[in-house]
C-alpha cells in the first residue's frame, strides 16, 4: 500500500513512513493511493468475529508489506487490553432503531483512546526498526492529549510536546497533564484557543527545528487517527444488520477523523445510507456541509467543550476525495483557506458530498433538554457531546427503517458535575482538583519561541 500527499507531487511513502510522520513534505496530509473494497459476502462473513480480528481484517490492507502478519495481529490485540468492556465498543439501544455506540471504555474514557493506543504501539515498533527517537507533538483541548499521554507512557523512544489553550481545559484535565513526567513531556500553554494551537502545530511540523529527531503528530493529521476509526462503522453495522442492512450514523463533530472515516468505510463497501455531522453552537462544519461555506470563527465555550473549535484538519483529506484525488485543486483550496480563513468548494463536489452527509447544529438549551429527556425516558445518562449527536440523529435521519447509531465519544462520568446539576447523575461528583501554576504563556503566533524551547529541551535531555 502506497501513500501520497493530498497536495499532489510525486512523493510516495509506505505505511511505516506515514506512521513516523507529522505532515507530508509539501505540507499536505498522507492518504492511501487506493482503498480496499470488500464484497457484501465478505463483510457479512465477519459478523461473528471478535473485535481485534475484525480490526485486523479492515486495517491489514492499509499496512501492506510494512509489517509481518503475526506482529500486526499481536499489536492490534494488545491495543485493546486496557479497555474495560469485553465488547470493546458495546451498543446501547435508546429508542426505536436508535442506538449509541459506546466508544469510551478505554483507559482515559474517550474515543481518542482507540487511535492513541494503536498509534503508540505502531510508533514504538517502527522506531525500533529504524533505530531512531521521535518527538510526538500535537494540540489538545483535553481528551486527545490525555489519551496520547497515556498511550505513549510506555514508549521510551518517544518524548512528547503538548500544546493546549491556556484557558481551554477543565481543571481535572489540566491537572492530569501537569502530572506527566517533565523529563519526557513538555507542556506549552498557548495564549489563544484550540484553533490557534492547531495552527501553531501545523506551522511547527512544516518548519521542523530538530535535526535528527523525527516528528510524529498525535492529532488526526496522522493517518492512524483515521484508520483506527473506520472500524467503528464496520463494528456497529455488523452488530445491527450483519453488514448487509443499511445503517445511518450521527457523529458529534469532536473529530473530523471520525467523519472522514465514515466516508472511507462506505467506499470500502459498507452499506451506510447517511452520516449526520452534529455540531454544537460552534457550527463551522455544519455551515460547510449545509451551505458550502467554511470559515474560521471565534468559538464559544459550551457544555460540550470537545467541539469548541472551528479548524478540522481531516477536511483536507475529504476535499481530496471529492475532487477525485486532484492534488493541485486541493492544494489551491487549502492555501486559499490558510491565507484568508474561508473556503467554498465547487458545486459539483459539494453536491457529491451531500449524497452521504447531512448536518445539524444543536444549541445549548437543546443539549441540556436532551440529556434530561433521555434519562427520564430510558434511565440512561449521556454526556453533552453524545446528546448533540442523539438529537441530531433523531431529527434528521433519512429512514426510520435503518438503524441510527450515535457515536458516544466520552464517558458520562466525565461530565458528572453537569449531569448532577441536571438531576440525572447519582454518583458523587469529583471534588475540586488542585492545579499547579502554568508555564509561561506562548503567544499564539510565536513559532520562533516554540522552536527555541524545543531545541533547549532536546539539548538538556540528550
Automatic annotation (TrEMBL):
**How would you classify this enzyme at the top EC level?**
lyase
Which positions fall inside the Tryptophan synthase beta chain-like PALP domain?
Answer: 89-398
What SUPFAM superfamilies does this protein map onto? Tryptophan synthase beta subunit-like PLP-dependent enzymes
Q: Which cofactor does it need?
A: pyridoxal 5'-phosphate
Q: Which Pfam families match?
A: PALP, Thr_synth_N
Q: Which stretches make up the Threonine synthase N-terminal domain?
A: 3-80
Identify the EC number(s). Answer: 4.2.3.1
Stretches that traverse the bilayer: none
KW Lyase (keyword) present: yes
Give the matching InterPro entries: Thr_synth_N (IPR029144), Thr_synth_N_sf (IPR037158), Thr_synthase-like (IPR004450), Threonine_Synthase (IPR051166), TrpB-like_PALP (IPR001926), TrpB-like_PALP_sf (IPR036052)
- What's a single GO MF annotation on this record? threonine synthase activity
**Keywords on this record?**
Lyase, Pyridoxal phosphate
> Can you tell me which family this protein belongs to?
Belongs to the threonine synthase family.
Q: What is this protein identified as? A: Threonine synthase
What is the name of the gene encoding this protein?
Answer: thrC
Amino acid at each position: 500500500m502506497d501513500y501520497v500527499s493530498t497536495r499532489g507531487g510525486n512523493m510516495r511513502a509506505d505505511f511505516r513512513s506515514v506512521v513516523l510522520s507529522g505532515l507530508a513534505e509539501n505540507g499536505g496530509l498522507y492518504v492511501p493511493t487506493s482503498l480496499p473494497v470488500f464484497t457484501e459476502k465478505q463483510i457479512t462473513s465477519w459478523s461473528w468475529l471478535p473485535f481485534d480480528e475484525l480490526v485486523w481484517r479492515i486495517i491489514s490492507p492499509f499496512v501492506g508489506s510494512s509489517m509481518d502478519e503475526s506482529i500486526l495481529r499481536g499489536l492490534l490485540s494488545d491495543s485493546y487490553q486496557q479497555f474495560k468492556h469485553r465488547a470493546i465498543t458495546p451498543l446501547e439501544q435508546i429508542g426505536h432503531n436508535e442506538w449509541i455506540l459506546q466508544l469510551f471504555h478505554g483507559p482515559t474514557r474517550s474515543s481518542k483512546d482507540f487511535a492513541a493506543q494503536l498509534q503508540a504501539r505502531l510508533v514504538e515498533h517502527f522506531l525500533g526498526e529504524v533505530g531512531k527517537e521521535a518527538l510526538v507533538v500535537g494540540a489538545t483541548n483535553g481528551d486527545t492529549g490525555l489519551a496520547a499521554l497515556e498511550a505513549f507512557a510506555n514508549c521510551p523512544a518517544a518524548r512528547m510536546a503538548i500544546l493546549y489553550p491556556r484557558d481551554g481545559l477543565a481543571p481535572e484535565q489540566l491537572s492530569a497533564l501537569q502530572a506527566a513526567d517533565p523529563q519526557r513531556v513538555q507542556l506549552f500553554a498557548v495564549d489563544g484557543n484550540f484553533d490557534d494551537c492547531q495552527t501553531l502545530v501545523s506551522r511547527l511540523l512544516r518548519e521542523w527545528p530538530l535535526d535528527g529527531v523525527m516528528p510524529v503528530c498525535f492529532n488526526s493529521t496522522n493517518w492512524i487517527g483515521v484508520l483506527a476509526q473506520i472500524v467503528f462503522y464496520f463494528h456497529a453495522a455488523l452488530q445491527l444488520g450483519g453488514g448487509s442492512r443499511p445503517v445511518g450514523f450521527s457523529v458529534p463533530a469532536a473529530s473530523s477523523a471520525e467523519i472522514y472515516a465514515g466516508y472511507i468505510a462506505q467506499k470500502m463497501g459498507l452499506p451506510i445510507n447517511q452520516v449526520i455531522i452534529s455540531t454544537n453552537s460552534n457550527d463551522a462544519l455544519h455551515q460547510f456541509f449545509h451551505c458550502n461555506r467554511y470559515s474560521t470563527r471565534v468559538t464559544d465555550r459550551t457544555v460540550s467543550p470537545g467541539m469548541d473549535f472551528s479548524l478540522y484538519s481531516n477536511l483536507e483529506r475529504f476535499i481530496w476525495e471529492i475532487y477525485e484525488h486532484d492534488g493541485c485543486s486541493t492544494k489551491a483550496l487549502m492555501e486559499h483557506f490558510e491565507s484568508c480563513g474561508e473556503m467554498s468548494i465547487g458545486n459539483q463536489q459539494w453536491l457529491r458530498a451531500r449524497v452521504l452527509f447531512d448536518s445539524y447544529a444543536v444549541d445549548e438549551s437543546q443539549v441540556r433538554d436532551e440529556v434530561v429527556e433521555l434519562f427520564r425516558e430510558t434511565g440512561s445518562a449521556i454526556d453533552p457531546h453524545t446528546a448533540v449527536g442523539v438529537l441530531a440523529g433523531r431529527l434528521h435521519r433519512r429512514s426510520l427503517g435503518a438503524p441510527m447509531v450515535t457515536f458516544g465519544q466520552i464517558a458520562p462520568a466525565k461530565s458528572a458535575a453537569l449531569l448532577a446539576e441536571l438531576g440525572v447523575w447519582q454518583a458523587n461528583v469529583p471534588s475540586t482538583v488542585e492545579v499547579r501554576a502554568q508555564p509561561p504563556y506562548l503567544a499564539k503566533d510565536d513559532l520562533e519561541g516554540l522552536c527555541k524551547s524545543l531545541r533547549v529541551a532536546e539539548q538538556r535531555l540528550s
